[in-house]
Amino acid sequence: MRDFAYARAGTAESAAEALADPRTSVIAGGTELLNWFRLGIAAADNVVDIAGVDELRGIASDGDDLRIGALATLNEIGEHPLVIRTAGALASACLQAASAQIRNRATIGGNVLQRTRCPYFRAEEPLPWPCNKRDPGSGCTSLAGRHERQAIFGWTQDCVAVQPSDPAVALAMLDAQADVLGPAGPRTIPMREFHLTQREAADAGQPMRETRLEPGELITGYRLPASADGQAYVKVRERASYEYAIVSAAAAVRLDPVLPGACGAGRIAAARVALGSVAQRPWRLTLAEAELPGTPLTREALIPVIERAMADAAPLPQNGFKVTMARNAAVRALLTAGGAS
Ligand SMILES: Cc1cc2nc3c(=O)[nH]c(=O)nc-3n(C[C@H](O)[C@H](O)[C@H](O)COP(=O)(O)OP(=O)(O)OC[C@H]3O[C@@H](n4cnc5c(N)ncnc54)[C@H](O)[C@@H]3O)c2cc1C
């Protein structure tokens, strides 16, 4: 671990000003950043601690929006009555992340900036194998090696990693906006566009870029439009706690009012659905969202809609199972959100 200078920021503005120096990192809960320093994934000369900046805290209604400060911890979000009532998928995603101890420290600002769990990327330096994210131009060991947990959408020959955040999937599904403060002043980034696939990054001429956050920008919080839709977050993993998703799905469903005397399954009036751990960004199934209104809320009716929306999946030789698993997670999330499961 390299030495670094440590300072505490008093305001969001002073933290953003400090970030203008590319040798400076901000630290919130430190659950990611300190691991990166230890593994050699990142190094900084200066670390500015934002944990004491009160304006970055809090969870409250703001007009029709729900506003969540960047320093809110995953447990604070998951247990907050307002979030449970109006953004249940996000509350559930937060409480299914990591372990209770980590959730008490991990912030929602740092969570969406976590890096991939690809084991070739997460190795301690000196890196014993090529990894384009660690050493651009060296190659992707996962592509020819183990890649069963990797992407089925948006990957390139340069990198096949996925973004592992649970809350980011719910934020993207709920049409949340990130509020950021940077050298050019404040701006917002829609969470469904916050992360980039490898293909999107390559097309933009920056193949290893992972988000639309510009250097020097601080996330101050998130804004979520109030929603009365039923919601769910389904996480498929190898054990029930302290484990990353193999795939996940977040969904929100509004049903058509049931007519008196009608029988059978309710029909969907509107639905939103996003997959997690299938790409380097949360994957909204927009084709399905367009097709779902009018569809009965049954497994049999939902499966073909989700399959059509996932027809462009491009699994790697070892992860074809993720296509079926993600389809089933999306169907289960929709059924649960609509109250049919
Ligand atoms: C063992 C373990 C298991 C985990 N399991 C899961 C899981 O199942 N699901 C899941 O979603 N996550 C999981 N996580 C990830 C965890 O949720 C994140 O590490 C955490 O949320 C990061 O927040 P932090 O405050 O600790 O970030 P830090 O480590 O402080 O910072 C991480 C990065 O974000 C930057 N940053 C922090 N805050 C801001 C801000 N406001 N604006 C701009 N940049 C900022 C930092 O500069 C740094 O680059 C796990 C982590 C660990 C260690």
Structure, described:
- The protein has 341 residues and is α+β, with helices and mostly antiparallel strands.
- Helix content is 29%, strand content 20%.
- The chain has helices at 12-19, 33-39, 74-79, 81-86, 88-95, 100-103, 108-111, 141-144, 167-173, 191-194, 198-203, 286-291, 299-309, 321-337, and strands at 5-8, 24-27, 46-49, 59-62, 65-69, 177-182, 185-190, 218-225, 230-236, 247-255, 268-276, 283-284.
- The strands form 3 sheets. It has a 5-stranded antiparallel sheet. A 4-stranded antiparallel sheet has the order 9-10-11-12. The chain has a 3-stranded parallel sheet with strand order 1-3-2, covered by helices on one side.
- Helix 5 runs antiparallel to helix 9 (167-173) and helix 13 (299-309) packs across helix 14.
- The chain is globular and about 70 Å long.
Q: What's the rounded overall pLDDT mean?
A: 96
Could you give the order of the helices and strands?
EHEHEEEHHHHHHHEEHHEEEEEHHH
Question: What general form does the structure show?
Answer: globular
Largest sheet entry: 5 strands, antiparallel
Distance between the termini: 49 Å
Helix amount, in percent?
A: 25-40%
Sheet-strand content, in percent, reads: 15-25%
**Rg, please?**
20 Å
Listed once per kind, the bound small molecules are:
flavin-adenine dinucleotide
- Label the structural class: alpha+beta
Total helix count? 14
User: How many beta-strand segments?
Assistant: 12
Main-sheet strand order equals 4-5-8-6-7
Low-pLDDT windows of residues? none
